[in-house]
Amino acid sequence: MNTSALPRHVAIIMDGNGRWAKKNALRVALGHRKGVEALRAIIRESSDIGIEALSLYAFSTENWRRSPEEVEALMGLLLEYFTNEIDELDENRVCIRILGDKDGMPEKQREALIKAEERTKNNTGLKLNIAINYGSRAELARAARILAEKAVRGEIRPGDITEQALADELYTKGLPDVDLLIRTSGEMRLSNFLLYQCAYAEFVFPTVLWPDFDLAAYHEALDAFGSRDRRFGGRKT
Ligand code: FPP
User: Fold this and answer.
1) In this structure, which residue's CA is closest to atom 1 in ligand 1?
2) What span, in angstroms and rounded, lies between the C-alpha atoms of 215 and 220?
3) Is the distance from CB of 198 to CB of 131 less than 8 angstroms?
4) Which pLDDT tens digit goes with each residue over 106-134?
5) Which protein residue's CA is at the shortest distance from atom 6 of ligand 1?
């Protein structure tokens, strides 16, 4: 792996848990459970190789439309994850941030998310952002609302609403833009994930299903990023 051209911020859409479960004749909940195992290894590796920020799409605002059994399984896994993994994450100096509307989460999960953020907020290692009950359009509308309220109160003028001012009201405030977006399972969509933050991201779409996304696949995606020619709208002479 070429470590000289690593992305600062990697975002991952962990897609394919359902198909993996079907392929292996298992219940969908077990596909998600296997997905958590894959995620554990990717978090550890990101931390080890010095990725600054890793953003994971765990549960979108649209995922509530899934069957009650699947939603319940995902909520259970989230609670389990934030209860069982927090010690190790904290020891590894991982700083957890939740992207999304925590108030719309069931009470137990909401408390666990807040506790994880609170406990790890001063950690200086990997910035681990987990998108839960997240939708990018809702995030942008929320930012616009906050800015409008500030304007109504007379704290800012419309002319103060710059790109930076908007970025500062997003859940990702203070993080670098996404450099590399990975979506597994061969789907090639953003699905309402970090639309603003991905303006200049490089996209990689491995065909492997998320539970099978191992370190070799991760390194391949990082290598693909390293070989891209990023111009940010400019021209190289
Ligand atoms: C997409 O696969 C995956 C999800 C909707 C959930 C991702 C969640 C996890 C990996 C586990 C929970 C996360 C944490 C942080 C503990 P899909 O079900 O849409 O797959 P399919 O398209 O093959 O059906």
Assistant:
1) 15
2) 8
3) no
4) 999 999 999 999 999 999 999 999 999 99
5) 58
Question: 206 C-alpha to center of ligand 1: Å?
Answer: 16
**Alpha-carbon distance values, 42 to 35, 160, 180, 223 (Å):** 11, 39, 14, 15
Please report the pLDDT score of residue 126 as a whole number. Answer: 98
The per-residue pLDDT for range 134-168, each reduced to its tens digit, is 999 999 999 999 999 999 999 999 999 999 999 99
Give me the CATH number covering residue 72. 3.40.1180.10
Q: Which domain holds residue 29?
A: 6-134+177-226
The answer to whether position 158 is within a domain reads no
Cβ(14) to ligand 1 under 6 A? yes
pLDDT-derived band at 174, boundaries 50, 70, 90: very high
In a domain, 206, yes or no: yes
Angle among Cα 210, 211, 216 to the nearest 5 degrees reads 80
Q: Whose alpha carbon is nearest atom 8 of ligand 1?
A: 58
